[in-house]
Write a structure and sequence with these properties.
Elements (H helix, E strand, L loop, with lengths): L13 E2 L2 H8 L10 E4 L7 H5 L5 E4 L3 H10 L7 E2 L17 E5 L5 H10 L6 E7 H8 L9 H7 L2 E9 L4 E2 L6 E8 L9 H13 L5 H4 L1 H4 L20 H12 L5
Parallel strand pairs: 2-3, 2-5, 3-4, 5-6
Antiparallel strand pairs: 1-8, 6-9, 7-9
Length: 260
């Protein structure tokens, strides 16, 4: 039987440690009963423990060697293996209602995966899995820390994010050059964003593009040199000092002074 070899071009690092795989699968237990979509199952190390949950399940895999392997070794998934690029999929048709997303995600596209999940936030109440430790720290970081940045704010608007545990390099084939971590994103109670979402993204990205400066300086590309809002105390702060709610308030203030 053909062996699947990790492909560097796809950012593949296959998990070997079964105990860790089971722990990752268990991160969805608080959402018992909801269908599961696994992203990038590879050779099914995580898949086998997800199937034990007895929940409706599909997997999406871009690598055709892995797709062939999964068909041969997981007959119960025969009609539930999607050989596509997750980032290009319309997730509305995967399951009829809400579902969870999980995976040992390719590190080079993990941020894109989470922003994809964000696009379907009302369908995906939970997303968990393994990513590069540095990215996990950014996702889960509270305000006031160096790791807090654009992705922290934009994801935490809609999700509560937990850093669950760290994973060493040697449990993978091939071992990555960085440590890994498992995170869980749980949809928060926000049902409506009380600001212009497009403007919020622009404010956050512009502010963090010069994160060492105060907002009075970092937001000049958006507001100009002489904005009437600059005397407000919030503009004395640097972007990493603002909570999600403070960014929303700031966005509303900016919305009212921008030319319509």
């Amino acid at each position: 039987m053909k062996t699947v070899h990790p492909k560097k071009a796809l950012g593949q690092h296959f998990l070997k440690d079964l105990q860790i795989a089971r722990k990752i699968a268990d991160t969805l237990d608080s959402f018992d009963g909801l269908p599961i979509l696994e992203v990038g199952p590879g050779t099914g190390v995580l898949t086998q423990f997800l199937l034990e949950k007895g929940r409706p399940m599909k997997v999406v895999e871009l690598d055709w060697d892995s797709v062939t392997y999964l068909h041969r070794n997981f007959p119960s998934l025969e009609n539930h293996i999607i050989g596509e690029d997750f980032l290009k999929m319309d997730l509305n048709g995967v399951f009829p209602d809400r579902f969870c997303v999980i995976g040992n995600y390719p590190y080079n596209i993990s941020s894109q995966i989470f922003f994809k999940v964000l696009d379907y936030k009302d369908r995906i109440p939970c997303c968990s899995g393994m990513i590069q430790k540095e990215v996990a720290e950014r996702l889960a970081s509270p305000p006031g820390r160096k790791a807090y940045g654009i992705i922290s704010v934009l994801l935490q608007v809609w999700y509560d994010i937990e850093y669950l545990f760290t994973v060493g390099e040697q449990v993978f084939d091939p071992p990555p050059k960085v440590k890994s971590a498992v995170i869980r994103m749980t949809r928060n109670k926000r049902t409506f964003l009380d600001c212009d979402e497009k403007l919020l993204k622009s404010v956050v990205k512009t502010a963090f593009n010069q994160r060492r400066k105060t907002l009075r300086n970092s937001l000049k590309p958006l507001l100009g040199k002489d904005c009437e809002l600059y005397p407000m105390p919030v503009f004395d702060k640097r972007p990493e000092q603002l909570s999600v709610e403070e960014f929303i308030t700031l966005t509303n203030n900016i919305f009212h002074v921008l030319p319509k």
